[in-house]
Design goal:
single chain; about 140 residues; alpha+beta; 4 helices
């Protein structure tokens, strides 16, 4: 009896809540970037993930598409610590197999401040766990908190 209680307690401690699992994937993205770990980085995304950035050039606003493959290629060429995006997870919402995460950030490249903004992640729970399906972000050099 005591052994079965002990094993069930250990199982409960090691299990992550859906919220914790979603946060882990988002955090893994930035750990992978900072460590130039392309295997971990690729594992964060669904097979058909979409990346977009909102660029505001003067009075013109554009939404730019980027590919996961390009991000992985960029990170793969960097040294450890070169791409350091520091996030603050403000909001996590989950409904069944869909999650949304809102993270203001500051990005440092090779130790120097580059830009800041907000990431908005959409994640899906696939058979192999939570994966990032969509990211859209803003980028600016001023007004960073």
């Amino acid at each position: 009896m005591c052994l079965s209680f002990l094993f069930s307690s250990v199982k409960l401690v090691s299990a992550q809540s859906p919220r914790d699992s979603v946060i882990t994937v988002v955090n893994n993205l930035f750990v992978a970037m900072k460590n130039a770990d392309t295997v971990l980085l690729k594992n964060c995304f669904s097979p058909n993930a979409v990346l977009q950035t909102i660029h505001n050039r003067g009075m013109e606003l554009k939404v730019i598409n980027e590919s996961v493959a390009s991000l992985i290629e960029f990170i793969g060429k960097e040294t450890i610590g070169a791409a350091d995006e520091q996030i603050n997870i403000e909001t996590v919402k989950i409904d069944a197999a869909l999650a949304m995460v809102w993270t203001p950030y500051k990005f440092y490249y090779k130790g120097k401040f580059s830009h800041c903004g907000v990431n908005c992640f959409q994640l899906v729970r696939l058979s192999n766990g939570w994966r990032i399906q969509y990211i859209i972000d803003t980028r600016r050099k001023e007004g960073c908190l």
